[in-house]
Fold this sequence. Notes:
Deoxyribonuclease I, Chain A, 6 helices
Amino acid sequence: MNAMRIATYNVNGVNGRLPVLLRWLTETTPDVVCLQELKAPQEKFPEQAILEAGYKAIWHGQKSWNGVAILSRGDIPAEIRRVLPGDPEDAHSRYIEAEIGGLTVGGLYLPNGNPAPGPKFDYKLRWFDRLITHAQGLLAAGKPVLLTGDFNVMPTELDVYKPESWVDDALFRPETRAAFAKLMDQGWTDAIRTLYPDEKIYTFWDYFRNAFARNAGLRIDHFLLSPNLAPRLIAAGVDKQVRGWEKTSDHAPVWIELKD
Length: 260
């Protein structure tokens, strides 16, 4: 059976982590990859190296911060938009959307929001509201859609190694989790949780306090599938080994497989 493998990876600096990214692409050959936190202006994206690895890319860069991209091993992703609608003043590069292989793919990097409460947290919740509105429109269009990336939210206590120490963090505050729940209530399927309802699965481990070795992690990188796409889900996982490589991101790549 033919399957399409789609991955999401917060690279935490695409140029500084390029050897890690290229090694992972070579070893795992996903068909489509959404990247977050490029931390590179538009002209500094390593397009040539990624082409040589077998991938065509579209990206939206930003100096020092943020930045999102979509890579494809087949045709170049057909870009639909590179900004989340709803705030013409928002200059952050946090969303990119394309058509690939009959799917609408939205790659996103949701604001962190710390310190909370405060202006950064307010921005996070406003961005979440815009995402909820846009996601509703995507579902209404009736095409198979997936939203993926770094959502900067642990939806439940199962998604965080020590829930009690995160209660005041912007990634785990009730307002953040309520926004995620509101999004899910539109009918999206959380791919990892659907296949692994009770397992401790993390996608991020801090650089500090030996977090990776202790498996003191968070699950903040998610795949949300529209109702007409969810039945095609056959597998999902985290390439946890990549987090243990030299000069690696604090996130591990996350992937799903969809049957054709």
